[in-house]
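Q: Convert this sequence to structure tokens.
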Amino acid sequence: MVRRFIARRLLVDLSGNPKDTLHHSGQVAEVCAPGDLAKLVATDTPLGPDQTADCLGVKRAEID
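A:
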């Protein structure tokens, strides 16, 4: 999730090492504020086919 937050520019990576990340503690506290973190994670998590169909309000059908 941290890498996704960096890609969305919610966090800035201060590390020069591509395998690790380093972040400003104030920025992390702001992103992880109560109530906001679950919404951000849910927004950034891909949905499966059934979840997508439910979200769009359509019936999912398998086509051979």
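The helical segments are 2-7, 25-31, 36-44, 49-56.
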